[in-house]
Specification:
The structure holds two protein chains of two kinds. By secondary structure, chain A is α/β, with parallel strands linked by helices. Chain A has 13 helices and 17 strands. By secondary structure, chain B is α+β, with helices and mostly antiparallel strands. Chain B is elongated and about 55 Å long. Bound molecules: iron/sulfur cluster (2 copies). The site of one iron/sulfur cluster has 13 residues of chain B, from helix 2.
C-alpha cells in the first residue's frame, strides 16, 4: 500500500463525520429535512455553507418527500446531490426512492438508522433501511463514525460510476454512531476533492427518434429528453433489467473504489463488501451489520482466548448482496449465526438471515444457520449476550429441522 | 411501432425508446369532438386548451382532431366560443 496522506484527527460524532464528508465532496445541492437522529448532519452542513466552508446550494424543504424529490431534480439536472434522513423520514420518501433509482440518478443519502413508529422510538434499529432494500439503491452500512465518513466519500464515486449510475444509501446506527463522539481522521480538502472530482454525467445513446445522438444523461434544453415518462408493458421490463444488471456490476466498482480510498487514507474494511474478523480458521462465524459488529470483535477476542474458534463477518454492502463472498467464507465453517437488527413480520427470520441462508443453498456442504433478531428500538446488545449467542452457534452442528430464530434481549 | 428492442439496446434511466406519439391512446375515449367548419372562426382556442396536443392546427386552415390520441375530455368543446365543437359518442 502506498503511503497514505497526513490527516487531521478530530473529535466528531457520526453525524458530524458525515457532514464533513459531504463538505469535502464537491456537493452541488443539499436538500434535506431534519429528523432525529439525522439532524446534526443538516445543522453542520447549514453552518458550513453559511460560513463559506462548503460551496453548495441548500434547499430547505417542507418534508422528506420533497427533500428527495428536490435531490432527484438536482441530480437529473446534472448536479451532485446529497441528502440525509432517518426512520419515518425515509418512510415518507418511499415513492421517490424508487423514482431516483429507476431514473439512475446518483443521489447519495445518509440514513441514520432509527426504529419506525409506532410506538414512537428515536433509537437504533435497521427496520427503516431494511424496508428499502428492494428500492434499487445501493446500501452500505458503517460500523463507526470513521467509516461513516469514509463511506460517504466513496459513495459519490460509486453512485456516479458509469458502470453503476445508481443512488447510494450510507447507513450509520442512530445514536450509537450518530451521536457518539469518536476520534475521526479527516483527510485534507484537496485530497478528497481530487478523489471524488466533480460530477460528470455518464453518456447515453439516444434512440432514432431523437436523432441517434450521444448525450450526457441529464436534462438540458439543448437536447430535450424525457426521463421516466410512460413506459408500459413494452419497455418497462427492459428498464428494470437495466437496473438489475447495474446492481450486478456494482460489487466490482465498490471493491475498486474501496481499494483506491484505502491507498490514500490507509483505512480499509475487508474487501469493501464484507469485513471479516478472525474468520479464516473459525469453526463458527457470526454475521451481522453495523455497530454491534464492533462489539462482536471484542467478544471474538475473548472467546479466542478461551480457545473457542469463533470469527465474525460484518456485512458492509447489503445491496448488492455479496452472496459469492458469503459462500466462500461460509464453506468449511461448521456453523453460522446471523444477527438481524430488524424484523420481517411473518417471515421465517430477519432479512439478513433469509439472504444468507438463500446464498448458502447452492453449497453442497451447508453449515447450519441460526438466526437472531436483536436490538429493536435501541435495545442494548451487551457483550455477554453476544457471547451467549456465539457459544450457542459454536455448539450447533446440525441444521435445525425448522429455521431457528431467537430474540436475544426481548423479555417474555 | 417498430420492432421491440432488448434491454441492451435501449437508453437507461427510463428514457422512452419510442416517442409518446407512437402510443395510440385514443381508444380510452368515450366521446369524440367533431368540429363544424361552418361555425369555426379559426380562433385557435381549442388548439391552445387541449391538454393532450390532440388538436392539429397550422394557424391558417381549419383545425382537425388527432383521434389516435384525443381522450375525449371535452375541454375543446367547452372552450370553443362559437360552439363549433360537438361531443359525439363513439
Ligand atoms: S376532447 Fe379533449 S383531448 Fe380531445 S381534442 Fe378536445 S380537448 Fe383535446
Ligand atoms: S375553438 Fe372553436 S372556433 Fe376556435 S378554432 Fe377551435 S373549433 Fe374553431
Amino acid at each position: 500500500m502506498a503511503k497514505s496522506v497526513q490527516q487531521r484527527m478530530m473529535s466528531l460524532n457520526g453525524d458530524e463525520a458525515v457532514a464533513w464528508a459531504a463538505r469535502q465532496s464537491n456537493v452541488d445541492v443539499v436538500a434535506a429535512f431534519p429528523i432525529t437522529p439525522q439532524t446534526i448532519i443538516m445543522e453542520r452542513i447549514a453552518e458550513f455553507i453559511h460560513d463559506g466552508l462548503m460551496d453548495s446550494e441548500i434547499i430547505r424543504v417542507e418534508s422528506e418527500h420533497s427533500a428527495l424529490s428536490a435531490s432527484w431534480g438536482a441530480s437529473i439536472a446534472g448536479a451532485r446531490a446529497f441528502t440525509a434522513t432517518a426512520a419515518n423520514g425515509l418512510a415518507l420518501m418511499w415513492e421517490i426512492l424508487y423514482i431516483v433509482a429507476s431514473s439512475r440518478a446518483p443521489v447519495v443519502m445518509a440514513v441514520v438508522n432509527r426504529a419506525l413508529s409506532a410506538p414512537i422510538n428515536i433509537h437504533c434499529d435497521h427496520s427503516d433501511s431494511m424496508g428499502a432494500r428492494d428500492s434499487g439503491w445501493i446500501q452500505i452500512y458503517s460500523e463507526d463514525a470513521q467509516e461513516a465518513y469514509d463511506n460517504t466519500i466513496q459513495a459519490f464515486r460509486i453512485a456516479e460510476h458509469e458502470n453503476v449510475q445508481l443512488p447510494v444509501m450510507v447507513m450509520l446506527d442512530g445514536f450509537l454512531i450518530s451521536h457518539t463522539m469518536q476520534n475521526v481522521q479527516i483527510l485534507p480538502e484537496d485530497v478528497v476533492s481530487d478523489f471524488v472530482g466533480y460530477r460528470k454525467p455518464s453518456r447515453i445513446k439516444l434512440p432514432e427518434f431523437y436523432g441517434e445522438k450521444e448525450i450526457p444523461l441529464m436534462l438540458n434544453p439543448k437536447y430535450p429528453i424525457s426521463i421516466g415518462p410512460l413506459d408500459l408493458y413494452d419497455y418497462y421490463f427492459e428498464h428494470k433489467m437495466q437496473q438489475i444488471e447495474a446492481m450486478k456490476r456494482a460489487p466490482e466498482v465498490i471493491k475498486e473504489i474501496h481499494k483506491e480510498f484505502a491507498e490514500i487514507s490507509g483505512r480499509s474494511y475487508g474487501d469493501g463488501l464484507l469485513d471479516p474478523y478472525r474468520a479464516e480458521d473459525a469453526d463458527a462465524l457470526i454475521m451481522g451489520i453495523g455497530s454491534t459488529m464492533g462489539t462482536m470483535k471484542a467478544v471474538v477476542d475473548e472467546l479466542r482466548e478461551e480457545g473457542k474458534k469463533v470469527g465474525s463477518v460484518r456485512i458492509r454492502t447489503f445491496r448488492p448482496f455479496p452472496a459469492d463472498e458469503i459462500r466462500e467464507l461460509a464453506s468449511g465453517v461448521s456453523s453460522l449465526g446471523v444477527l438481524d437488527r430488524s424484523a420481517s413480520f411473518g417471515a421465517e427470520g430477519g432479512p439478513l438471515f433469509m439472504e444468507v441462508r438463500s446464498a448458502l443453498y447452492s453449497l453442497k456442504d451447508r453449515p447450519p444457520v441460526l438466526g437472531y433478531i436483536y436490538g429493536l428500538g435501541g435495545r442494548d446488545m451487551p457483550p455477554r449476550l453476544l457471547k451467549k449467542i456465539a457459544e450457542e452457534v459454536l455448539s450447533t452442528r446440525e441444521e435445525p429441522e425448522r429455521p431457528r430464530v431467537g430474540y436475544p434481549g426481548a423479555r417474555e | 411501432m417498430s420492432a421491440l428492442r432488448g434491454w441492451k439496446e435501449i437508453p437507461i434511466a427510463g428514457i422512452p425508446f419510442e416517442p409518446a406519439v407512437k402510443y395510440k391512446t385514443g381508444d380510452w375515449r368515450v366521446f369524440r369532438p367533431v368540429i363544424d367548419n361552418e361555425k369555426c372562426i379559426k380562433c385557435g382556442l381549442c388548439w391552445m386548451f387541449c391538454p393532450d396536443s390532440s388538436i392539429i392546427w397550422d394557424g391558417d386552415n381549419f383545425p382537425t382532431v388527432d383521434y389516435e390520441h384525443c381522450k375525449g375530455c371535452g375541454i375543446c368543446a367547452h372552450e370553443c366560443p362559437t360552439k363549433a365543437i360537438e361531443m359525439v359518442r363513439g
